[in-house]
Design goal:
Blueprint lengths: L1 H17 L8 H21 L6 H35 L1
Amino acid sequence: MVYFYAVLWVLVGVILIFRMGGENRVFYPIGGFFLILGAWWAAGAYTGLNLFTGAWGWALRAITAAALCLACVEFAREMKKTREKNKRE
């Protein structure tokens, strides 16, 4: 089942980068995050280590927090741009 999650996260990343990236540039780093997450799950399944605890777990949490902050900032910029566009119309 862990290989399923690894493949799932990689597919989500690829879809975000190649299909959704043209709509908004925020999908490139978020898609990259999902590729990293897929590799993380695959590495954990392959090595048999629990990479979600200890120092590795904290590293993943830091990467996740950075991706979430980036997504929030880009979302706020997009909302501001959309509001300004709607005011002009």
